[in-house]
Amino acid sequence: MQQLTPNWIILLPFLGGIAVTTQAAVNGQLREQVQSPLVAAFISFGVGTLVLGLLILLTKQQLPTYQQLVGISPHKLMGGVLGAFFVTSIILSVQRLSVANIFALVVAGQLGIALLYDHFGMIGVRQSPVTLTRLAGLAFLILGAYLINKK
């Protein structure tokens, strides 16, 4: 794939946030139609898998060999499990909480664990120490999540 300019790189996570929030609402509706959070998550992942397969074919991506596949460390395959947990947990929550409430909590959880991963350089991420400024940002985000969820 061609290299993205720094401006696009900054925009991609923002657009990803829009996509995942929209996905929550759509998957909540899918759950109502199929009457099952697990079936809704399965359908969502199935459609995503088909789209990715089509993109791989259209962009002529080289597929890994059998040896490359069996050489993958099991923990590196957890992304699919974590994605399934995330999507299913959102599908289960979206009918009881508002989308804003859910994603205030999601973002607070994401930033909290991200600071921990960064500080210690865990799971292969670049080490970036926690500072008072970053901790203040986390505190304000948690306060924001609390205020958004306060009735």
UniProtKB/TrEMBL annotation:
Q: Which InterPro entries match?
A: YdcZ (IPR006750)
Transmembrane portions of the chain: 34-57, 100-117, 129-148
Quick check: keyword Kinase in the entry? Answer: no
Quote a single Gene Ontology cellular component term: plasma membrane
Q: Specify whether Transmembrane is a keyword of the entry.
A: yes
| The protein, known as | DMT family transporter
> Which keywords label this protein?
Membrane, Transmembrane, Transmembrane helix
Question: Which Pfam family, an example, fits this chain?
Answer: DMT_YdcZ
Q: Which domain of life is it from?
A: Bacteria
